[in-house]
Amino acid sequence: MTRAAVFDVDGTLVDSNYLHTAAWTEAFRQTGHPVTGRDVHRALGLPGHDLLARLLGEEHDPDLADTLRAAHKTLYATHFERLRPLPGAAELLRAVADRGWRVVLATSADGEELAALRRAIDADDVIADTASADDVNEGKPAPEPVHHARSLAGDVPPERTVFVGDSVWDMRAAARAGATPVGVTCGGLAAEELWAAGAAEVHADPAALLDALAVSPFGR
Fold it and tell me: Signal peptide position in this chain (predicted)?
């Protein structure tokens, strides 16, 4: 049977979390609603509307939200040339694919941003598909993004799906979907936070997971 290897992108395969944090923080500053970088960083991984609700409050002005999203998109685009893969990202994807897993990326990025991320990873030859947050009604930590990624891999059952991510939202989404959550700390969160969110195991980065591949869920 086919097996699905689902990978978050920002902070998991590409070293982009702090660039996103800088862009969001500046977008908030420009609109007169300053927030701390720490609060932005801890909200990363949520869909855009949930991130804004967490930082602005549930009853925020929708026009302000649109302005913030547009500002973030413009500011973040200035960092595209600075995007770099995290250690072992491409090698991990190729090793997993060589073991017979279908590799699917799970990201809210699209258009030029997604193209920039894929250039940074440089493993298009083994990426079977990309699951976008725009394709589901509820983003992480809801399980729907993981279910959608499984469908793109060929309706793979949950027990044959591994989700690798760097946020507590990734771990919760994977656990709720019945997939195996694997955490990486290269996005900036502590291992203890990922364990508490349901991770089956936690590694420092893609290279560390690659080193342990034989005894990881991908090997077992």
Answer: none
